[in-house]
Fold:
Amino acid sequence: MTDAKPYRHRFPMALIQHAIWLYHRFPLSYWDVQEFLRQRGIVVSHETLREWCIEFAPLFAEDLRHREPRRGSRWHLDEVCTSVDGVRHWVWRAVDEHGFVLDVLLQRHRNTEAAKTFLTRLLVEYDVPEVIHTDQLGSCGAAIREIPSLADVDHQQVISTARCNDTTLQEHRAHGDRNDNSRGSSGGNAPKQS
Structure:
């Protein structure tokens, strides 16, 4: 972004970007941002701020997306069983080698079609990885073989006992701790609620 004024705007892009950043970064209303700028000698109406957010926020968001680091080329895929309203579902999760969660998907099935759906969804968003690590679930391997763009990908099935330091399992552990705390259990010495 340059300091040039956008076409048909009287303020430079740096000021517009700062005003939009204030609105989206902090819990401020358009009126609060208007007052904040007025204290610094910049007179802008709240309606102008609203129009700036509509017009320029997607451009700034796209610019920020391009600055994000490239995601890793090693994916760790995992699925976990959970119950939603008493019905068994599977949470499919993909994590890259840096620990960044690529995607999470909740599905009713744990078959090849479900794995294909999840992998296809990942490929829409990210580049084809070099290596995919999965557990020994056969449907993941079948789905990888059925998707043409994954034909050259190295698929490595990892034995469950060797996965103690796996990135995806560390992610599950964090969710398990959070769920235990939300239920009110704070440890072995805590009194039980009735």
Remarks:
- Residues 46-67 form the longest helix (22 residues).
